[in-house]
Records
---
Amino acid sequence: MVIKVDDLHIPVLLDEVIDNMNLKSNDIVVDCTLGFGGHSSRILSKINKGHLYAFDQDDEAIKYSDNRLNKICSNYTIIKSNFDNIKEELNKLGVNKVNCILFDLGVSSVQLDSDRGFTYMRNEKLDMRMDKEQKFSAIDVVNTYSYNDLVRIFFEYGESNFSKSIAKNIVKYREHKKIEYTSELVDIINSSTPKLLKKNPSKQIFQAIRIEVNHELDSLDKALDQAFDLIDVGGRILVISFHSLEDRIVKTKFNLKSNVDFIIKGNPNIDSSMLPKFRLVNKKPIVPSALELEKNSRSMSSKLRIIERIR
Ligand SMILES: C[S@@+](CC[C@H](N)C(=O)[O-])C[C@H]1O[C@@H](n2cnc3c(N)ncnc32)[C@H](O)[C@@H]1O
């Protein structure tokens, strides 16, 4: 059987991303989330005189994508690092300004389908690290976090209405046995929540633990600030988010960067240094079409926001 690339991970909002990047052949582009190279390979085919810098912290994704991109051309550099080091890593390579930066947040389908404990749908060892060299994993979260910290992450990152009862039962369970497998966690969640809920409660709890293990919100926050410094005039930053908290960070930062103070608005004598350096390309986020949703249910909660540097 021949496995097609798109059987591994279907890139989300691909046409919308490429159309909005406004790529020119000599552009310098950064893909902060290389994954299985869905976006990167399309980008690379458009910048044959430019260069693509692609970040990921997952060795398997890097190995696969290196092979995939190499078949297109050699104008790319893969950087194994958390994207919250974007500025330092690019500066080390002598890159101070770029034309486009893309973030396609979260995990890839391949990571979800791997045996690294990201999913509640199979019994695997609890793990959830994107970077296997990182020591801290889901095992540490469920076995060492206090009741209050568990409630906080389940409530904040998982938006679960059952945060307290699940946290209470985790603490009770681990008094007798360390929680090591996804099935143990799923059993605890099921025994802490009403039967026949519309949404599987494990989905929210697993997501919350994954966000905590990989410091996902903190990394996004840090990386966006660096992206604003790196992007050149006329360039764009594009972010695909899958979670309301991610989207809130992006929306808030983009609004702050592009906001025209009401005192400045309409005042012809204002010095241009006081005007915002960025403009929002789309006020409302771009979401997947009905056709994309039909083809790829994992695109369901995706939202694309874009900002452009104008001065
Ligand atoms: C949704 S996938 C990207 C898929 C990719 N756009 C494609 O079309 O194949 C997200 C990827 O970004 C990586 N990633 C997520 N957060 C990261 C971070 N903070 N630093 C580096 N890589 C990260 C994950 O390991 C994963 O491979």
---
Amino acid sequence: MSDIVIRPAKEDDWDLVEEGLIEGELLTERPERRSVISRERLRENARKSIDRYHRNAKKPEAAFIAETGGVRAGFVWVTTEINFSDDDTCGWVLEIYVLPEYRRRGIAAKLLQRAEEWTREQNATSLWLNAGGNNDAALALYKRVGFSVETVHMSKRL
Ligand SMILES: CC(C)(COP(=O)(O)OP(=O)(O)OC[C@H]1O[C@@H](n2cnc3c(N)ncnc32)[C@H](O)[C@@H]1OP(=O)(O)O)[C@@H](O)C(=O)NCCC(=O)NCCS
């Protein structure tokens, strides 16, 4: 799609970030658990993350909005506050989200490209993220744009 514009987020875009964080967290849960999870608790967690990594950020962070036809279609949010790498500074994608009706048009790939550029501008040499093991779309996206697996968390229900 040629009419995708990626721009920095404004303060009144953080409602979209909040919704995306809720959806993203839901997708890290096993499918059978999703319907029983309290959306209010997820909203509380989302607001805590926004307070911690945006409003009270200790290190640089940035969110970018994707627009198509002047309408918001998704966002990416990246910070330098989380560091699991050997580098002094690395980027960490806190969330990426594209509204369902705009998916599979290359928007997330463009957002990740912008997150990469921003991370390089912070003199970082790597970009990291977490993905739910059941989130096939996200896993396919990350693989497609060049991410590889570093650590796998596993669990056994007892
Ligand atoms: C994951 C997500 C961000 C992908 O957004 P998107 O804009 O649809 O992704 P793109 O169109 O840029 O996809 C780029 C490539 O990623 C892969 N991909 C993306 N979605 C896929 C899917 N549902 N199934 C298989 N591959 C997929 C494909 O290789 C795709 O290229 P192609 O369309 O040419 O085959 C979107 O599905 C989403 O917002 N999901 C809910 C939130 C979420 O899971 N966030 C990640 C949390 S870790």
